[in-house]
Amino acid sequence: MNEAGSSGPVIDRDSAAALMEPLTDLVVRAGVAILAVNRLAMKIDGKVDGSPVTEADLASDRIIGEGLARLIPDVPALSEERAHQAKPPYHGSFFLIDPLDGTKEFVAGRSEFTVISRW
User: Fold this and answer.
1) What's phi and psi for 58, nearest 5 deg?
2) Per-residue pLDDT tens digits for 57-87
């Protein structure tokens, strides 16, 4: 990882390549947590924008957020589920997390959802 002066840490190509395996492990763990949630009994809340958030979203977000904080503590992570905690502006590299993309589909019992983490 390079330090980009006052613009914040930057994940270079070699560092990104080295992160692929541990990041994949985080996403797999998050997916397991999502699938472990009983959809028929899960709690569903609403966000400020009216979209749903479930315990599966929160479990996935917790796994990814805590994992990123351990792996790369200097690179901030912005999550859809923790947008209210964001401290922009972000300079340099940052992680953008959607811990369960397709919550409406997940709630409806369909399998068209995914776990997304990008930098």
Assistant:
1) -70, -40
2) 999 999 999 999 999 998 988 888 887 777 7
110 three-state secondary structure: coil
Pairing of strands 114-118, 95-101: antiparallel
Let me know if 57 is exposed, middle or buried by CB neighbors in 10 A (0-12, 13-18, 19+).
Answer: buried
Strands of 30-108, DSSP E: 44-46, 52-54, 77-79, 95-101
pTM score: 0.84
Q: Rounded to the nearest 5°, which phi and psi values hold at 82?
A: -125, 30
Region for 77 from its dihedrals, namely left if φ exceeds 0, alpha if ψ lies in -120 to 50, beta otherwise:
beta
Dist CA 99 CA 53 (whole Å): 10
**Block residue for tokens 């949630």:** 37
The burial of 51, by beta-carbon neighbours within 10 Å (0-12 exposed, 13-18 middle, 19 or more buried), is given as exposed
What's the chain's Rg over C-alpha atoms? 15
CA distance 21 to 17: 8
